[in-house]
Design a protein that fits this description.
71 residues, alpha+beta, three-stranded antiparallel β-sheet, 21% helix
């Protein structure tokens, strides 16, 4: 049976932020529905980003439409 969770996208973004921060030691991890990197007046929502050494990496997080059943 399929269950709907309207917050799944946001929850998945939080999981990815936690993962890159705790497993890969990224710093300055940010992102989410209200996080934009565009100049004022422009829209450029960023799901997840973080600093790794001298680099900032940006992630477009897309949860799978349906979870796969394990065989």
């Amino acid at each position: 049976m399929k269950t709907e969770n309207h917050n799944y996208g946001k929850e998945f973004e939080e999981e990815v932020k936690s993962f890159i921060e705790n497993k890969f030691n990224f710093k300055d991890v940010k992102g989410g529905p209200d996080f934009h990197i565009a100049p004022p007046g422009k829209s450029n929502q960023t799901d997840v980003c973080g600093r790794w050494h001298d680099f900032y990496l940006f992630f477009n997080v897309k949860p799978q439409a349906e979870k796969l059943r394990k065989a």
